[in-house]
Amino acid sequence: MLTHLSIRDVVLIEKLDLPFHAGLTALTGETGAGKSILLDSLGLALGERTSSRIIRAGADQSSVTAVFELPGDHPVYALLHELDISSIEKGEPLVLRRVVTKDGRSRAYICDHPLGINVLRRVASLLVEIQGQHEQMGLADQGTHLDLLDHFDVPYPLRHNTAQRWDEWQAARRELLQFRKTIDDAAREEEWLRHTIDDLTALAPQEGEEEELAALRIKLQHDERRGEAVTAALAELTPRDRRSTVPSQALRAASRALSRLLPSPIASDQQTEIHDNRAYQEQAQEALNALDKAEEALAEAETLLSRLAADTSPDSRLLEETEERLFTLRAEARKHRITVTELPQFLTNLKERLTRIERGTEELAELEQKAQQARRAFEESATLLSQARQKASRQLEKKIMAELKPLKLERARFIVEQTPLPPEQWNRRGMEHISFLIAANPGQPPGPLGKVASGGELSRLMLAMKVVLAGRSSLSTLVFDEVDSGVGGATASAIGERLHRVARDVQLLAITHSPQVAARGDHQLRIAKRVSEGHTHTLAEPLSHDERREEIARMLAGDTITDAARAAADSLLGHTGS
Length: 578
Prior knowledge:
The two termini are 34 Å apart. The protein is of the alpha/beta class. 53% of the residues lie in helices and 16% in strands. It has 18 helices and 15 strands.
């Protein structure tokens, strides 16, 4: 509920701080005292349109702050969380503040968080409802009528079940539409699908195949390089043509030629000559020995190279096949803009798409049946909901009509119109539109509340609604601006009694000129004008019991308060004596 209202520099109000309490608070004062300024100030804090003209003369800006204390489960906290104002804890007082500057700009805050005016209005709509002579924020808005009827006497399980059936139907419809799109898209590419599947099936890519082929390719390339090296080495030991000499033959020929220099059984007449060249013979023998070793080493090298050639047998054909397979896989992957690793799954996906085309008719029929069943389930639940609303409508009409006569609306007819919606406008709330209509006079066709009823009639009708729907709304505060306008006596007394009854469930502020209404208040504020140093100021003050007696007597008698007026005030207040 609203606990505090601070006003600074608004029209005739320089500074005003007002506490508010639960129950019914009557705001009274002479005509022109400034009660409307107070209401306009509250509207400013709630996000209503304004201009720089509200700024008090001589001031630079106007500001209004409204403080609300609410239960932790109030829906406004869920809205704040949705708006990402999560620093405000559940149950924490809400401080709504609005500032208007001379250039016509305004700033809005919730607990010092700056926010847009539209956001402020959304928050305020969950806190306060104003019914006045010029603006009806609740009942005249047809968008609220369905909720008002449902909260009156439509079972929640029916509403909840209908919303669930709607969600299920919409999910089935989305699944059906998506499948149809998939089938249509796939059908247009069926030829491409079959061709691509044939190519990939023939290629038969395997998981991990790229890594295996790449590793095998490297190994085969190494084998080939080793084989080439061994072959080249052996080739150097083999004559390139017929005129070339084999190294081993050359070594043996060299040995034979050199051996002629060594001692051998020759004629004695040559021994002296040979003996005389012993040093030369020793060198020749060393050279011959070296040639023998070279021949042996060459033979050993030929043997080892032959063994390497046998062990290193590069498979050129296998290397060619491996490279061809690897390059084919990579080319196919590039064509489809995927990796080689993704080719097997890509083929699987294509086969599934083709299968869906081939089996699409059967699956499409199943999804269509599912969607039809979901629609029937929604229609069945929504029909039961419509029937419950019809029953609730008659009950609401009956109860509202019973409240209209005491409120001097006995000639009016209140009607709850239930209009079926076309299927394309069905929603999770059902299949109908609810409108509250009124025929203000006999013979007059019923019409929308805001167009047919006058301001006073609409306020009284709103009061009747609130009496019937007391305690069934999340609103914490209701404001009635001169709901008693144009009535008096028994009608004013009836209005006061009903305001008091509604105030048992919700905080209620009533601007009134009626002593019968004011006397029903749990609290009373007097609005007055004062002239000081040539300036007019609007003031507001809470009244004690004795002050209330005097104020109500003034409302009864006018400027001259008589004992009879005080006695009548005592009677209205439920007391006797002075």
